[in-house]
Structure formats: C-alpha cells, structure tokens
C-alpha cells in the first residue's frame, strides 16, 4: 500500500496511540525527544506518578500510522483525521510503501513500512484539505 506519513518513521515500527493517553500524558509526550520516544516513555512510566499504572505495550499501535494517499496528497475520511492532519502541518512528509497491518483509532491505516521517500507538500494545500472536513 502506498501512503503518506507525517514525521519520522518510529524506530520500533509502531506509532504511539495518543487516544490512550490522558491530557497530561499528551502534554508530557509533546516535550519528549521523539527520536528516542520509546525510551522516554519507558522512563516516565518507571519514574512518574501520573504514568505508574500505564502498560507500555498497550500504548503502541500494531504498525506505523499513515494517511491514505491519492495523487500525492493525504486522503481524509473523518474529523479526527482532519484534526490529526492540521496538527502535523510542518512535520517532515514521506511517501511510504508497505503492508497494511491494521487500522488505527481514528480509522487511519497502520503499515509495516518497507520504503520511505521524503517529499514536500505546500502547507496551504494541507490546510485546505483539513478544512474541507472541519
């Protein structure tokens, strides 16, 4: 499957499921080093009260979260995906290919990524795609 990924490809091959985090935990993640996210999350689970009951493995999707792709642009199927796209404007963008291994919390495909090529999409184009749904 060909798709679009915003942000670096996670080293563990799985995306963090933000829907399983509390608001405070999401704020914590926003300040973390995303190139080392797995270790950062392990650290806070072991050392922070607000994370002590969190099961590390349950926080991760079964693959990497991506947007469906059509004509080199992300396809938005619902309001959650539109909000997700708006929050990712400015991130590095990749055309990725891989095997679909599941579906994420907001209906997005989850892939086992085989190839990734960085591309550019104008931010105003991305904003207009997200606004159609919102």
- The overall strand count is 6
Low-confidence stretches: none
> Can you tell me the number of structural domains?
2
Major sheet description = 6 strands, antiparallel
What is the H/E string?
EHHEEEHEEH
**What's the arrangement of strands in the largest beta sheet?**
2-6-5-1-3-4
> In which range does the helix fraction lie?
25-40%
Report the span from N to C terminus: 27 Å
Q: What structural category characterises the helix and strand content?
A: alpha+beta
Gyration radius over CA = 15 Å
User: How big a fraction of the residues is strand?
Assistant: 25-35%
Mean pLDDT reading: 92
Q: What overall geometry do the principal axes of the alpha carbons give?
A: globular
Separate helix tally = 4
Main attributes of the structure:
134 residues, 6-stranded antiparallel beta sheet, globular, alpha+beta
Secondary-structure blueprint:
Layout: E1 2-6, H1 23-30, H2 37-47, E2 64-65, E3 67-70, E4 73-75, H3 79-88, E5 93-103, E6 109-119, H4 123-133
Antiparallel strand pairs: 1-3, 1-5, 2-6, 3-4, 5-6
Helix pairs in contact: 3-4
Structure report:
With 134 residues, the protein is α+β, with helices and mostly antiparallel strands. The chain folds into two domains: 1-14 and 63-134, no CATH class; 18-59, no CATH class. It is 30% helix and 27% strand. It has helices at residues 23-30, 37-47, 79-88, 123-133; strands at 2-6, 64-65, 67-70, 73-75, 93-103, 109-119. A six-stranded antiparallel β-sheet has the order 2-6-5-1-3-4, covered by helices on one side. A hairpin with a 2-residue loop joins strand 3 (67-70) and strand 4. The two termini are 27 Å apart.
């Amino acid at each position: 499957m060909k798709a679009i990924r915003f942000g670096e490809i996670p080293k563990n091959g799985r995306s963090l499921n933000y829907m399983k985090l509390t608001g405070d935990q999401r704020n914590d993640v926003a300040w973390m080093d995303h190139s080392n996210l797995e270790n950062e999350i392990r650290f806070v689970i072991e050392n922070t009260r607000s994370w002590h009951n969190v099961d590390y493995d349950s926080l991760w999707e079964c693959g990497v979260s991506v947007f469906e792709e059509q004509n080199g642009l992300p396809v938005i199927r619902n309001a959650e995906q539109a909000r997700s796209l708006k929050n990712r404007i400015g991130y590095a963008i990749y055309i990725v290919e891989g095997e679909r291994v599941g579906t994420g919390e907001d209906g997005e495909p989850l892939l086992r990524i085989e190839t990734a090529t960085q591309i550019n999409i104008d931010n105003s184009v991305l904003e207009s795609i997200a606004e159609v749904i919102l």
